[in-house]
Specification:
By secondary structure, the chain is α+β, with helices and mostly antiparallel strands. The chain has 2 domains: 72 residues, Arc Repressor Mutant, subunit A (Orthogonal Bundle); 177 residues, GAF domain (Beta-Lactamase, 2-Layer Sandwich). The chain has 11 helices and 8 strands. The strands form 2 sheets. A 6-stranded antiparallel sheet has the order 5-4-3-8-7-6. A two-stranded antiparallel ribbon has the order 1-2. α7 packs antiparallel against α11.
């Protein structure tokens, strides 16, 4: 039986304007192309002035942004907040632990590097380091990556328990490029190979011009905690690719040894 008394007590101690603000953010979350004040007013049945004030406040904090056509979308500040979500629900701050290893890796290679985890929503980049090499790719924490297309994504999938993996393989696999693996059986075979090798490679599965290598970070228990990956432009010499692969593996191994649990 549900305790309505407790729910009523909680409701008495909420702030209505924050509830309305969350309603606005919720609408924008469901609209990848954004929404105008008129559309939000119609869907939320709130006064136009209320919507306008909420959006102005959120825009001032970079929580939403307005385009030239008057549509509002979620802002970049949310990416920064999202990058800390996984760490806050875990016993360790894996982003903080990984940052020095990413910085060292990017300094060594001159390429950007990132640390990714898998959660109920898919692949999340929780930490990143920028490369200073010419044409180094920009990476940023808070990014959501395709669950099946990319080195880190495949590596994280490869270490899931069979029942959890089956759930992801049952979902539609989008073909971002001709290199994307969209057949569940073929992807499952690729994941077995990746787990056996101990590293993963992306040859343009998410974007034709972007390749990458990824290596696993393990907790002391042996459980996969994250993946370190290095994206780079296609066309690199084989010797350069091998340098990147080995550097990613070394960085992931070093981070694994530094994990507190």
């Amino acid at each position: 039986m549900i305790d309505d008394t407790n729910e009523t007590a909680v409701a008495k101690h909420t702030i209505p304007v924050i509830d309305r603000m969350m309603d606005v953010l919720g609408q924008l979350e469901r609209r990848s192309n954004g929404a105008t004040i008129r559309e939000l007013t119609a869907h939320l049945s709130l006064p136009r002035t209320t919507i306008y004030r909420i959006l102005n406040t959120l825009q001032g904090h970079d929580m939403v942004r307005r385009d030239d056509n008057g549509s509002y979308t979620l802002g970049r500040r949310l990416l920064t907040l999202a990058s800390h979500v996984v760490a806050s629900v875990s016993d360790i701050d894996i982003a903080a632990i990984g940052q020095p290893f990413l910085d060292r890796l990017s300094t060594e290679l001159g390429e950007g590097s990132k640390l990714s985890v898998i959660d109920q929503d898919g692949i999340l980049v929780v930490a990143a380091s920028q490369g200073r090499r010419e044409y180094a790719l920009t990476v940023a924490p808070g990014q959501r990556m395709p669950i099946h297309a990319g080195a880190a994504s495949k590596l994280l999938l490869a270490h899931l328990p069979p029942d959890e993996l089956a759930v992801w393989l049952a979902k539609p696999l989008i073909g971002y490029t001709p290199k994307s693996i969209t057949d569940p059986k073929r992807l499952a075979s690729e994941l077995v190979r990746i787990k056996r090798l101990g590293w993963a490679q992306d040859r343009g599965e998410n974007a034709p011009s972007i390749h990458a290598f990824a290596a696993p970070v393990f907790a002391k228990t042996g459980r996969l905690a994250a993946a370190i990956s290095v994206p780079f432009l296609a066309g690199a010499e084989p010797s350069r690719m091998e340098e990147i692969r080995l550097a990613a593996i070394d960085a992931a191994r070093a981070m694994s040894e530094a994990m507190p649990v």
